[in-house]
Amino acid sequence: MSLLAILQSFLLIAGALMFCIGSLGLIRFPDTYTRIHALTKADNLGLGLIVLALILNVESVALALKLLLIWGLVMIASALSGHLVAWEADEQCIPLCQPGETERHLESEDE
Amino acid sequence: MNELIDLTLVCILLGLASLSLFTQSLFRAVMFFILLGLILALVWIRLDAPDIALAEAAIGAGITGILLLDALAHLRATSNTPPQLRQLKQPRFWLALISGAGVILLLALAISEPLAPAVALDLQVSENLTNSGVTHPITAILLNFRSYDTLLEVAVLVLAALVAVTLRQSDEHPVVNEYLPNPLLHACLKLFFPMIFLVSMYLLWAGAAQPGGAFQAGAVLAAAFVLFYLVGLKTQLAQNDIYLKGGWIFGLALFVLVGSMPLLYGQPFLTYPDSQAGIFILLIELGLTLSIGWILFSMFLLSQSSPLQKKDSP
Amino acid sequence: MNSLYSVTLVILLISLLMGVFRIWRGPRMADRIMAAQLTGSTGVAVLLIFAELQNQPAARDTALVLALLAMLVAIAFVGRVWGFSQEKKDS
């Protein structure tokens, strides 16, 4: 196994695990704001690592640039949607989780 | 390992489909349905059908989700009580049962039918591909070998838009679209609008040699139009009836016009001269892209009738 | 290499299932929208790996389209649906 392949496998697995950590945050964190926080960061890092791994055995520069473009677009889109949802959540006075509290069930379903 | 992936995908697909059908909350159902579209795109790629995957990604992730969310907004605005599950009335129940059973019966018949003797269609396509003007077999079939089908498909799409405009309830008050005063949104969209247009045109151009083409490009274009509308950039073009309907039939008209050009030289309808077929197809596809994008956007626009203003009243 | 891609895919699909769980659980609409965003970017990653695994370059185009359009749902949600469910803060 060459050094390149080892690096690639490390990046791939690390990226996928990063996604899992983000999802774990989405499941475990107590309120809307913290869940947004978990998602917008871990995911983009995970995708970035996977894109880097894939770039290592790509044939042309154009293809590498395309992969980087996809990563950039996902980053901007996820930052934008995270920001919008948090902004609107604040406008609508969705409560923050206070220290010591577990997941909020009071006034839960807002639909 | 591959079986595990396929099995997981199938399970997620079936699970999402049943969740979106059986869940009580409408919003949840809409979210599951959007997700279903995403998984479906993955499954199409898995099945080596990238053309359909592209269309599914563009339509499922873009315009369908927005239409459903918008319908939800209308429901919320018009009635304060969430719609309950209702018992189907007797005749409707039997009607639904009979038609469902009929469809199942027909499908069973179709499956049990002995297969027609195999015609090597793929061989015929690859033999004639060099003369079709494009190198991607699916585009060659859609716009050269079987262009009648595509022509009629587009006509059906125009018809659907006409039906939508007929069914629309007359609204006395034009819709007030909520303008989102968020600086980050507008800064990001300045980047995204050109990107979406670029990707749309890329799909159109790439359609000649690889998966892509007018339908996918049109769906992406429609998403750009809807985005324009959602952030509160009013388009005057859509207010004008002539532009609105002219945009719908533009692609179809161009298709018929280009298709009837060979008639001048005594050739049959929709047969392009081999040497210029590529140009003809590109021209038709460009017209189709614009029209399909415009029709899908109009479907969204026409659903914008009055109830959204309820916001002011408590 | 291919088995490595498969392992990555399986982990990604598990992450996707967690997102589905959050959509089911809610409790708020915002949580569901954010979970849908998560599945969107997971879908992009899965598509990029499919492109390598199955030698299907068009999967990258699909990923590109998905990356561009995934945020539309969030914008439509914030602009249209949410405002009608609750009273807004006076400001």
Notes on the structure:
The complex is a heterotrimer of chains A (111), B (314) and C (91). With 111 residues, chain A is mainly alpha-helical. Chain A has three helices and no strands. Chain A has helices at 3-28, 32-55, 61-91. Chain A is elongated. Chain B is mainly α and 314 residues long. Chain B has two domains: 1-116, NADH-ubiquinone/plastoquinone oxidoreductase chain 6, subunit NuoJ (Four Helix Bundle (Hemerythrin (Met), subunit A)), CATH 1.20.120.1200; 137-314, no CATH class. Chain B is 71% helix and 0% strand. The radius of gyration of chain B is 22 Å and the shape is globular. Chain B starts with a helix and ends in a 12-residue tail after the last helix. Chain C is mainly α. Chain C has one domain (2-75). The longest helix of chain C is centred in the middle third of the chain and has 25 residues, at 29-53. Chains B and C meet through α1, α2, α3, α8 and α9 of B and α1, α2 and α3 of C.
Instruction: Estimate the mean pLDDT confidence of chain B.
Output: 81
State the share of residues found in helices of chain A, binned by percent. over 70%
Question: What's the average pLDDT of chain A?
Answer: 84
Task: Report the structural category of chain A.
Answer: mainly alpha
Using only CA atoms, what is the Rg of chain B?
22 Å
What is the total tally of β strands of chain A? 0
Report how far apart the termini of chain B are: 56 Å
Topology:
The complex is a heterotrimer of chains A (111), B (314) and C (91).
Chain A: H1 3-28, H2 32-55, H3 61-91
Chain B: H1 2-22, H2 26-46, H3 50-78, H4 90-112, H5 121-128, H6 137-145, H7 147-167, H8 183-206, H9 214-230, H10 241-264, H11 277-302
Helix pairs in contact in B: 1-2, 2-3, 3-9, 6-7, 7-10, 7-11, 8-9, 9-11, 10-11
Chain C: H1 2-25, H2 29-53, H3 58-81
Helix pairs in contact in C: 1-2, 2-3
List keywords for this structure.
heterotrimer; B: 314 residues; mainly alpha; Four Helix Bundle (Hemerythrin (Met), subunit A); 11 helices; 71% helix; disordered C terminus; C: 91 residues; 80% helix
Quick summary:
The complex is a heterotrimer of chains A (111), B (314) and C (91). Helix content of chain A is 73%, strand content 0%.
